[in-house]
Design goal:
Length: 501
């Protein structure tokens, strides 16, 4: 097995203030391939002094960045987008190696990263204040201003995509960023900071510290941080929300999910099964909007199950670097154990195993990898653990319904409210249910699709706040009112007779 002394293993420092920085502490974290357990890199486990130094660099960068005209900020973001376009192949290979996501998936995802930089660079130029003449001979003006240093706490499942969704909006608004990537997949974020320097962004605009949960907690408590944006689990979200509340700084939380997929009996079953397989098993089921609860009309229930089973069993599980691979491993031993626990619990509770449920047969190179076969359980009842809890792996539940009212009740029987999908050819039904299903993002006859112009975010145990679109840009800004007296003389209230209003 590869060790930390092997020359091919990369040993990264922190990156803040526009340069690589030696950590002020001595501990390091290993980054291993979830497919083969090969050691890929080590990164610092940042301590208090590292976080304080990176925050100070972000604050110094803010004083420069906020003073730059929005047109110039937009030019910087577009230049970064062009640099990334020239390196999407390199970036996809790195993301695939560290996360275990198939290279075909990562090539498609990395190809879209520059769109977020281009989009927010553009819409920030259209951000305008308002003015109104109001009662009392007054004119009110509104101004937008950046918040300052923004903490971005990003996950391992989409390291660069989710970083750029947050980063592009924050920078376009005039803020700087203090970033803490997941300790499971931190490498591409460190390289992204170096690419920002290469693209000409001023020092201190992006500042990256690596480490575990303690490092994230230090960042949330850092006095210079004026906004916190987390994508992560619901338990972590509660702790981050409490830290933000203690300091009275704004916070966006994109947390867990248990997405319901309603499949009606007027669909093309083969098309719906193809969509279901993609929604459930892309990224090995490791996204917050992964399709995990299929709620299927009784007249087509068994036919849908058969079609989904055929799709699942055709998926090639294996080497993430092979372009033919459809599904790679889950990210860690903990993730694999959680998926296996759900498989065991569903079996014990009487759910019907349709497909999977056993470790996939793989070459010796991947024998130690964290693989879980695509697994489908039918006849899953609402009281079962698999119906209620997030797996974050390729294990899904299928439940029948008799009518539209039952379908909606089953879909909404969850504390999560992030993603949902409705498969039907009935346009009226699609619109009717989209307005009633409990979710912040609803797809009709599709799933997982994302765009910088489409807002993204949920409520309940899925968090609060929005990514993408104007909502995201404005969430990184503070709005103030300036009131100007236009009357020629001051109404002297205490001097005799002036009345307000």
């Amino acid at each position: 097995m590869t060790t930390a002394t092997d020359p091919q293993v990369q040993h990264y420092d922190l990156h803040y203030g526009g340069a690589w920085q030696k950590p002020l502490g001595g501990n390091r974290l290993e980054v291993r391939s979830p497919a083969s357990r090969t050691l890929l890199a080590t990164v610092p486990d940042a301590g208090d002094a590292d976080v304080a130094a990176a925050a100070a660099a972000a604050q110094a960068g803010f004083e420069t960045w906020r003073a730059i005209d929005p047109f110039e900020r937009a030019r910087h973001l577009r230049a970064l987008g062009e640099l990334i376009r020239s390196r999407t192949g390199e970036l996809a290979e790195l993301e695939s190696a560290v996360t275990g996501r198939p290279i075909r998936e990562m090539r498609a995802q990395m190809g879209r990263i520059p769109e977020w930089l281009d989009y927010f660079a553009s819409i920030a130029l259209g951000l305008e204040g308002e003015s109104n003449q109001v009662k009392g001979g007054l004119v009110t003006l509104t101004h937008y201003e950046p918040l300052g240093v923004c903490a971005l706490l990003t996950p391992w499942n989409h390291p660069i995509l989710i970083l750029v969704k947050k980063f592009a909006a924050a920078l376009a608004a005039g803020n700087t960023c203090l970033v803490k990537p997941s300790e499971l997949a931190p490498v591409s974020t460190l390289l992204f900071a170096e690419w920002c320097r290469e693209a000409g962004l001023p020092a201190g605009v992006i500042n990256v510290v690596t480490g575990g949960g303690a490092t994230g907690a230090r960042i949330c408590a850092e006095p210079l941080v004026q906004r916190i944006d987390l994508t992560g689990g619901t338990a972590t979200g509660r702790r981050v929300a409490a830290a933000a509340g203690e300091r009275l700084v704004p916070c966006t939380l994109e947390l867990g999910g248990k997405a319901p997929i309603l499949v009606f009996d007027d669909v093309d079953i083969d098309e719906a099964a193809a969509g279901a397989a993609f929604a459930a098993f892309v990224a090995s089921g490791q996204t917050c909007v992964s399709a995990t609860r299929f709620i299927v009309a009784a007249p087509i229930y068994e036919r849908f199950l058969d079609a989904l089973k055929r799709r699942a069993e055709r998926l090639l599980v294996g080497d993430p670097a092979d372009p033919r691979t459809d599904m790679g491993p889950v990210i860690s031993a903990v993730s694999r154990a959680r998926a296996n626990e759900h498989i065991a619990a569903a079996t014990a509770e009487g759910a019907r195993l349709v497909s999977g449920g056993r470790p996939p047969d793989l070459p010796a190179l991947f024998a130690d990898g964290f693989y879980v076969a695509p697994t489908i359980f039918a006849d899953v009842r609402p009281e079962m653990r698999l119906f209620r809890e997030e797996v974050f792996g390729p294990v899904v539940a299928v439940t029948p319904f008799q009518d539209e009212a039952e379908a909606l009740a089953l879909a909404n029987d969850s504390p999560f409210a992030l993603g949902a999908a409705i498969w039907t050819r009935d346009v009226a039904r699609a619109h009717r249910l989209a307005g009633k299903v409990k979710a912040g993002v609803v797809w009709i006859n599709d799933h997982h699709k994302n765009d910088p112009r489409s807002i993204w975010g949920g409520h309940g145990e899925s968090g609060y706040g929005k990514e993408n679109g104007w909502d995201a840009l404005k969430s990184y800004l503070r709005k103030r009112s300036v009131v100007v007296r236009t009357n020629p003389g001051f109404d002297d209230w205490f001097g005799g007779g002036a009345r307000y209003g």
